[in-house]
Amino acid sequence: MDPSIIAFLVSASVCLGILLTERWHHQASHDFGGERRKVHLEAVPRIGGLGLAAGILATTLVYRDFMGGIVNSLVLCALPAFLAGFQEDITKSVPPHIRLLATVISAALAWAFVGVRIDHTAIALLDWFLAWPVLGFIFTSLAVASVAHGFNLIDGFNGLCGFTGLAVCGVFAFMAQGAGDQLVLAMSLVAFSALLGFLLFNWPFGRLFLGDGGAYLLGFRLACAGVLLAARNPSSISPFAVLLVLAFPAFEVLFSALRRIRSGRRAATSADHGHLHHLIY
């Protein structure tokens, strides 16, 4: 069976199971509306990231030889980010700076053990700094963590984060196929299919949310896929093309931090109601 079909079926099955059993876990798993930064009013499960994680994990385990060691290792590297986000989904008590630190740790692990490294940007001065291992390590870790955090910031409307992820997966798959990069192509298609399984219940009626764990996992995986795509195909893939594909979540992080700092009323990591999708709503 095609790996993408496995990812879709497992993700959809886990998401359906969450909804069928929500009366037994709703006190822990539901996101109760009414807060200033939220636009929904009813209680909705926010652990849909379990479906995404299950789809990716099942595919990795079943096709571990086909997927390759890099993909297998990325699953382990993603654990700090996913678990910190999932703990927030359940307890609603994990501070934003702790979750951000967890995504930095995941990015650092990917740099050290998988080779997810930004070492060229086509900007001569920046590339000179990135040639220093310590600076390259810091830059890559912060860049990957920022994209992961950005996907969490845009997870505010039914389908917004999920369809953004689908778009990124689709473009990365197209770019990887053109470059002949089967690894990133497989990563993108598996994530695309697992997201489809989740979106069956997320859009348009909002029966299930991705949650912090799912958003961090999605953002981390796509950030790593983008870095690998540019690093493995420097002659055909521009780093700026990857940045353009990830522009929405990346811009949301920068814009949100600057807006909060400028306001002087909130810390840069505090939640508010001024994100782009909130303003459009």
Q: What can you tell me about this protein's structure?
A:
The protein is mainly alpha-helical and 281 residues long. Helix content is 73%, strand content 1%. It has a two-stranded antiparallel ribbon. It starts with a helix and ends with a helix. The mean pLDDT is 89.
Our measurement of the CA-to-CA distance between the termini, rounded to an integer number of angstroms, reads: 42 Å
Specify the helix fraction band. Answer: over 70%
Q: Give a quick account of the main beta sheet: strands, pairing sense, barrel closure.
A: 2 strands, antiparallel
- The fraction of residues in strands falls at under 5%
Average pLDDT, rounded to a whole number, is 89
Query: Rg, please?
Result: 18 Å
Question: Runs with pLDDT <50, length 5+?
Answer: none
By DSSP, the count of extended strands is 2
SSE series = HHEEHHHHHHHHHHHHH
Overall form = globular
SS-based structural class?
mainly alpha
Instruction: Compute the number of helices.
Output: 15
Trace the largest sheet across and list its strands: 1-2
